[in-house]
Amino acid sequence: MALQLGGNLLEACILAIIEKEDVYGYRLTQEAKELMEVSESTLYPVLRRLQKDGLLNTYDEAFQGRNRRYYGITEEGKEKLQTYKVEWTGFKEKIDLVLEGVSRNE
C-alpha cells in the first residue's frame, strides 16, 4: 500500500485491534502487519505512549517458561477509540468525495 499510516490513525488501529481482546506484543505486531505496512520498531513506541497516556494497560503471563507482555484497553482507551471512529468517519467521507472528483459545492 502506497499510503502511509500516520500517528493518530496508527493509534486508532492499535486500539481497535486490542479492543476485541487483550493481546501479547508479538501477536499484536503480526496482526498489525497483516493490515498495514508497519514495523515492530514503529509499533512498540506507540504502545508505550498509549500506555503512558492511560489508554492501555499491560500485564505479564508465563508461557512456556517465558513471560508474555499482554496489552489491554482501558475505559479511557475505549473512549479515545470511539472519538477516533467518529473522526475517521468524517475524514473518510471527505477523502471519498475528493477521490471521486466530487466538489463540495455540488
TrEMBL record:
Top-level division of the source organism's lineage: Bacteria
Family matches, as Pfam families: PadR
Domain Transcription regulator PadR N-terminal: 14-82
Record's signal peptide: none
SUPFAM superfamilies reported for this sequence: Winged helix' DNA-binding domain
Residue stretches in coiled coil: none
Protein name: Transcriptional regulator, PadR-like family
Gene source species: Cellulosilyticum lentocellum (strain ATCC 49066 / DSM 5427 / NCIMB 11756 / RHM5) (Clostridium lentocellum)
Phylogenetic placement of the source organism: Bacteria, Bacillati, Bacillota, Clostridia, Lachnospirales
